[in-house]
Amino acid sequence: MSATIAARDAFKPNWTARLGLIAVALYSLYAIGQLDISWARLSVGFGEAGRFLARMVPPNFARWELLLEGMIESLQIAVLATVLGIIISLPLGLMAARNLAPWWLSAPIRGVIAVCRSLHYVIVAILFVKAIGFGALAGVAALTVASMGFVAKLFAEAVEEISMKQVEAIRATGAGPGAVLLYGVLPQVASRFIGFSLYQLDSNLRNSTLVGIVGAGGIGGTLFAAFKRFDYDFVCAILLSIIALIFVAELVSGRIRAALR
Amino acid sequence: MNNTMAPGMKPLMREWTYLTPAEAIGRWLVWLAVVAATVWAVRSIDIIPEFLADAPEQMADLLVRMWPPDAAHYYPDVHAALIETLHIATLGTILSLFLAVPIALLAARNICRIPVLNVTAQLILVSSRSVNSLVWALIFVAVFGPGPAAGTFAIAFRSIGFVGKLLAEALEETAPGPLEALTAAGAPWGSLMLKGVWPQVQPAFWGIALFRWDINVRESAVLGLVGAGGIGVVLDDAINFFQWDRVATVLLAILAVVVVAEIVVTRIRSRLI
């Protein structure tokens, strides 16, 4: 007789997962209590949401000059911040790559990049508004810092993944450090770098519509002012314009990315 | 010597170039566009020279006022706000997961076969992503009034687009085999999802959830600037009173939490995936 085969239960209950779910549910209840979210408040809120939405339609494009001015300023902030951020990220990323730079250089640069990335761009924008005053320049500076944090980190990671064979081959011809970078390293990471830059342009465009909330230029200031004056139909117009702008930007960058591939 | 080459060798003498003429022109056009956009932006952006001139001085002044950070301010004010921020981020993430899963199922073309629903779901995801979390916070402050409830909903609604998009992509990449096997066995829809799809997207799901939580911790720190609760309220107060030493304390606290959150996420990710 053949040995008895233990009946396999393919769908046996996963107790750790169930316990985890219960823990998440308990935490949610606790946090809801802590944050003072109650059903009464929510139901009042949903009533308010109805009124709010009713006041938003129809969107009011009567002050389109103000809207256009803000959008153009946002666009300028995004372009400048991306260009500056990329120019700064290139050397930063190379210096932060552990396979090219010595540790005493890469470690502090990595620290700088981590700080740039950890602080939210709106907080950075507040600090720059204090330092360079109200206006688009503070927005450019804040988004440049944010771009540095993102592009330099990804660029450093890309550089760390390159094949060292080509670098060694260029070195073996007696090339100096500059030529090694130019012909051994950069060709291997160029396409990825362009990808990161495009992505960053996209996200800078999103973020530049917002830094105006703290006075750093762009459409955000207009949006915040409209919110404060309960001009909800104008708010709706601004939001629709922002969504349209971002949608177009996403289409364009998607096309470019597809063309690059 | 070269002149006496056999006629068949002619193609070998071809000069090789890296790019075709069309590609070269295309690249030049792209560079031209980049430079033109930069020049346009530099020339027409509103820069006030006086502000730029004393920027280093002002920056130094700011740093001097920030140092030393007011450590006494940390407990209990900043600490309580920090905990509230973490609650907003976590609860917002959990809520967004619940809201995003059905939309992702509708958006995935291999799960939901009705094109109209696919497009509608994609539209919801795009609009959720296009509106920034601070703008969502402004909207929910108008709806729920100032406080952490507005922040939680802002975080949740901003995250739906992100989670839903990535989850829908993960769903579309699942292998159809297990689903077909279960369908052939006559399994109901719930079992199809639970036993055919869920095991395949589970790693991606937890990865997305953790990644979004990490982002949400960062974002919930600024929601308070528009009155949606969390540590941003404390930060805003300190800035409005020009108490820069307190601002420094708050910034250090945010930095610490963000770094810790990132380390925690990396640890859990490496264990899960």
Question: How does this structure look, described?
Answer:
- The complex is a heterodimer of chains A (261) and B (273).
- Chain A is built from 10 helices and no strands.
- Chain A is mostly helical and 261 residues long.
- The longest helix of chain A is centred in the N-terminal third of the chain and has 33 residues.
- The termini of chain A are far apart.
- Helix content of chain B is 76%, strand content 0%.
- Chain B has a single domain, classed as MetI-like fold, CATH 1.10.3720.
- Chain B is an all-alpha fold and 273 residues long.
- The chains are: A mainly alpha (261), B mainly alpha (273).
- At the A-B interface, helix 1, helix 2, helix 3, helix 4 and helix 5 of A face helix 1, helix 3, helix 4, helix 5 and helix 6 of B.
- Chain A: InterPro entries: MetI-like (IPR000515), MetI-like_sf (IPR035906), PhnE/PtxC (IPR005769).
The low-confidence runs of chain B, each spanning 5 or more residues with pLDDT under 50, are none
Radius of gyration of chain B: 27 Å
Corresponding CATH architecture of chain B: Orthogonal Bundle
- Low-confidence parts of chain A: none
CATH homologous superfamily label of chain B: MetI-like
- Overall shape of chain A: it is globular
CATH fold-level label of chain A: MetI-like fold
Strand-pairing-aware structural class of chain B: mainly alpha
Greatest interface (CB-CB under 8 A), with counts per chain: A-B, 59 and 57 residues
What is the gyration radius of chain A calculated from CA atoms? Answer: 26 Å
Distance between the termini of chain B: 65 Å
Helical residue percent band of chain A: over 70%
Tell me the domain tally of chain A: 1
Helix content of chain B: over 70%
Assembly status: heterodimer
The CATH architecture of chain A can be given as Orthogonal Bundle
Count of DSSP H/I helices of chain A: 10
Determine the mean pLDDT of chain B: 85
Count up the domains of chain B: 1
- Tell me the β content of chain A: under 5%
Task: Say which CATH homologous superfamily of chain A is assigned.
Answer: MetI-like
